[in-house]
Structure prediction request, 133 residues.
Amino acid sequence: MLQYKKFQNKIKGSSTEGKWYGRAYNSEIIDTKKLAKHMAEHNTPFSPGAIHGVLIDMIACIKHLVLEGKNVKLDDLSIFYLAIGSKPALKAEDFTAANIQSVKLSTRATGKMSEKNLLTEYEIKEVNEYQSP
Prediction:
C-alpha cells in the first residue's frame, strides 16, 4: 500500500501558495542489515548474515559498474545510473571536466515499480496519524 500525507505550499509569492499537495509517507528507513533479516524470514535457507554479505557485495558492484559508465538494472525495481550537472560553455571545445558541478547517483523505476504500475496496481491511502519518522 502506498501512503501519503497532505501538505500546504507556504512559499510566499509562489503561484501555488496556499494550495495543497500530497507527499509520499515513509515510516522508517530499512538498512542492509534489517533488509537481510527481513529477507531471511521469507522461507529461505540462508541466514541474515549470509544475505547481508551478498547485499554488501551487490552494493559494491553497483558502485563499481556505474562509475564505469554502465547502468545497472534490478528487474522490476530500478535502473541505477550516474547523472551530472554542469555549467554551459559557448563552444564544445571550451567544455571541460571543470564545467561539471555535480555528480549524483540516480535511479529510474522499472517494470512492476514503474510509475504507471504504481498508480494503477496498488492501493493509495492517506496516513491518518502524522508522526515524525
Remarks:
- The radius of gyration is 20 Å.
